[in-house]
Each structure stands twice: as structure tokens, then as C-alpha cells.
Amino acid sequence: MTSSLPTRSQAVAEALAVAGVPGEIRVLPDSARTAAEAAAALGCEVGAIANSLVFICDGAPLLVMTSGAHRVDTAYLARQLGSGPIERATAAQVREATGQAIGGVAPTGHPAPLRTVVDTALEAYEVLWAAAGHPHTVVPMTYRELLNVTGGTPSTVVVEQTQDPTTGQSDRL
């Protein structure tokens, strides 16, 4: 029942339903603002956490859905996209673009569609967990569902890497 969810998570639930994503939003007792916190709360690998990061690229917001196991290499991603520099959005810019606070940004449920890149490293996981509009809410989905709900472009977001699936630690090659 969506009425028991925080307001921002209700909007996410509605957007997920419209997109045909069946995952039910879960409310966690503690914050899941970081990938490590979310993975610990859910009992999954940190790499299966689909972090929603907002950047500014060519004067507009860019949502990057990335594996919790690594950080986006903005210079590399800019080269991949053929864009100008990519810079981290401020908290105010994140809220304006998504209607959601940092630590709870969902892949959907925003005031308007955002240009989105989806990290291909997430494809390695059967089930992904993404924030659902609030730092205490998460939603499961598949990689294909994530691509569908965001309308995102699959891309690598870091230079080639290896990743230990048990620890989520990444090393560049």
C-alpha cells in the first residue's frame, strides 16, 4: 500500500507501476544513504546497489545509475558521452532535478525525465536495489527494468575494472 510510504516514495511507486516494474518498495528502519548502509541492511553485495548520482553535464542534470562498488570517473564518462565536463550537482540542484534528497534519489518519480546513464556493471546482478525517493526506502528491480524505467543509456562509467563480487571492491586494470 503506497499510502504508508513517504510522499516522495509514493511518487516513485506510481512511476514504477506505470513502467510495469513489479518490485515493492521497502521501508528500512535505518537510513540507507550510502551503498554500504543499503547493502548491510538488505544483506546483499554492495555492487548490487544501484546508486543514483546526479551530475551537471552541458548545463543540464545527468542521472548516473552506478554500481555501489565503485565511483563514477567523470572525465572518462564525459569522453564516453562525447560531452563537456561532468561535475557533481549540489544538493539544491539534485532536489530541483529529482524532487528528492541526496541519499534517497530514485531512478524514477522525478518532476521531468532526466538524461540517464546506466552503469553496465549492474548487469552482473540478478537483483538490483535502488533508493525509492527517501533515505529509508529501497526497491528491487532487474537491470532490464532499470533501463526501462529510466530510459537510460547503458555505458561503462569507469575505466575497465575488475570487481570482487563478495566485497564489492574494484580495481582498475
Q: How would you summarize what this structure contains?
A:
This protein is α/β, with parallel strands linked by helices and 173 residues long. 26% of the residues lie in helices and 26% in strands. It is built from 5 helices and 10 strands.
List the helices and strands in order. Answer: HEHEEHEHEEEHEEE
Q: Beta-strand level of the residues, as a percent range?
A: 25-35%
| Structural class by secondary-structure content | alpha/beta
Q: What is the number of helical segments per DSSP (H or I, 4+ residues)?
A: 5
Largest sheet descriptor: 8 strands, mixed
Kindly state the mean pLDDT as a whole number?
A: 90
Integer-rounded radius of gyration: 15 Å
Point out poorly predicted stretches.
none
According to DSSP, the number of beta strands is 10
Distance between the termini: 46 Å
**Judging from the principal axes of the Cα atoms, what is the shape?**
globular
User: Percentage of helical residues?
Assistant: 25-40%
Topology:
Layout: H1 7-19, E1 26-27, H2 35-42, E2 49-57, E3 60-67, H3 74-81, E4 86-88, H4 91-98, E5 115-119, E6 128-131, E7 137-141, H5 143-150, E8 153-155, E9 161-163, E10 170-172
Parallel strand pairs: 2-6, 3-5, 5-8
Antiparallel strand pairs: 1-7, 2-3, 2-4, 6-7, 9-10
